[in-house]
Amino acid sequence: MDDFKGEIVEISDETPFVKTLKMRMDKKLDFLPGQYVFVVIEGERLLLRPYSIASSPIDEFLELCVAKVEGGVASKYLHERAVGDSLRIRGPLGKFVLCRTENPLIFIAAGSGIAPFRSMIRFALDSGWKNEIHLLFGVRTKADVIFAKEWEDLEKAFPNFHVVITLSREDGPETGYVQTKINRFSHLKDADVYVCGAGNMVQETMDALEKEGFKNIFVERYN
Question: Do the Cβ atoms of 188 and 104 come closer than 8 Å?
């Protein structure tokens, strides 16, 4: 695990509460899709906060997806950064990584749990993987869809990529929580399934997957 310095070159407002920070690193940071880094914040005491890498390993820049958390020291600090500022980064870490397989791939995320899947999906598509790739992404409202335009563009560009967005607090083409949508994949029991999110979502999704007969399940739980 090494220390790096990242200069912020672009900040994107993904939703009213989520920003993406794009950084140019001072040296090459080799990582696997799905891994995370620590952002080191120096002050009265040293704070280390983990953030999943949202960019692909073959991208030129490193990107972090930062959700603003009520009372969160790190998220407040990062949301106040500007282009030209630098961040101290430590890593990479984590074993929740994309494994090469011929099986279909299913990614199930809620909220900012989408970050590692952006890395995984972009890497798989840009590397020419031919697997059927499905993304089931749950958010509260349409305004909360992180990387909304990008998912639309990728689905148009890659015929093997399929996206379902489900809304829990607003009407839309799909409504409800992701854990209630597992049966739509009942024909893909041989798939590798990746789950990422917070709270009860992860456990309830795992329970639903196991009830449907899925065996290859990989999980990252955000606290």
Answer: yes
Residue 206: CATH number of its domain: 3.40.50.80
Strand positions, DSSP E, 85-146 = 86-93, 105-110, 133-139
- The range of the structural domain enclosing residue 62 comes to 2-93
Query: Are residues 117 and 69 both part of a single domain?
Result: no
CA distance 190 to 196: 19
Residue 30: band (very low, low, confident or very high) from pLDDT cuts 50, 70, 90: very high
Q: Is residue 100 part of a domain?
A: no
Question: What is the Cα–Cα distance from 29 to 4, expressed in whole angstroms?
Answer: 8
- Residue of 207, 49, 218, 204 lying closest to 117 (CA atoms): 218
Minimal CA–CA distance to 125: which of 24, 1, 9, 33?
33
Task: Name the token pair of 143.
Answer: 């305004």
What is the CA angle 79-81-83, rounded to 5?
A: 125
Tell me whether residue 27 is in a domain. yes
Beta bridge partners of 218: 194
Residue 154 domain-assigned?
yes
**What does the longest C-alpha to C-alpha distance in the chain come to?**
54
pLDDT in tens, 32-83: 999 999 999 987 789 999 999 999 999 999 999 999 999 999 999 999 999 9
Taking the model in full, what pTM does it have? 0.96
214 vs 93: CA distance, rounded Å: 27
Distance CA 20, CA 64 (A): 6
* Domain count across the chain: 2
What amino acid is encoded at 19 in this protein? Answer: K
